[in-house]
Every structure is written in structure tokens, then in C-alpha cells.
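Example 3.2
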Amino acid sequence: MDDSEVNRLILENLHPKDNIPQPLDEDFYKEIVNSTPSSSSDEFFPPTRPNRDNATEASVKKILNESQGLIDKAALKLVAPNAVNVAGAQFHDLVRLSVDEAAIVQAEEEAINASRKKANASVLRPR
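Structure, written as C-alpha cells:
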């Protein structure tokens, strides 16, 4: 690439400086808090509830009340599997807590007998 082509590419890809955002001052919020609640507050805080027709609102409430059962069933279908999986996971990987006393006693007796035989064999070994 020669210099003219590089300059052309630079000029094509440059952006004007007016697109660069300006940082806010440290006390930018004071303007918002101290402003009088007039049209200037609408600039920062748009109206939370748009103007609605009472008939539309009533029909929406009616539809919601009529279909509340279906909404509850759908919500339960979403929540129930997770709740069951959590409850199931609590008991899935537990260590067995039941103790088989007879097996423990037998294992100890076998260990004692093995050590006794070993000791007897070492003492009674021919010389």
C-alpha cells in the first residue's frame, strides 16, 4: 500500500468528533433532584402509566381473572420440575447411615485374629 491509499482508508473510516459522548459531572444528579416537578422532570422521568381507556383496562382484568387457573397451571408446570429435582438431589448422593453392627464386630474379630496369628507365628517360628 502506498501513502495515498492509506490516507484514503483513514479518511473513509474516521468518525466525526461530535459523536463522542461527553462524561457527566460528579454532581450531575443534583440537577435532577433539585429541579422543580414541572415539565423538566418529564425529561428525566417519563410518565410511568400511559393514558388508558377504562374499557380496555376492564377487559384486560376480566381476561386475567378468567384465565387465572390456566396461568397458575402453566406456572406450576415451570416451577414443579425444578422443585422436585432439588428435593430429589438432596437424597440422591447420601451416605448410608444404617450400621450393621454384626458386620463391624465380625470385621474387628477377623482383624484381631489375623494379628494374633501373625504374632503367634513370629513367636513360635522355628529358629
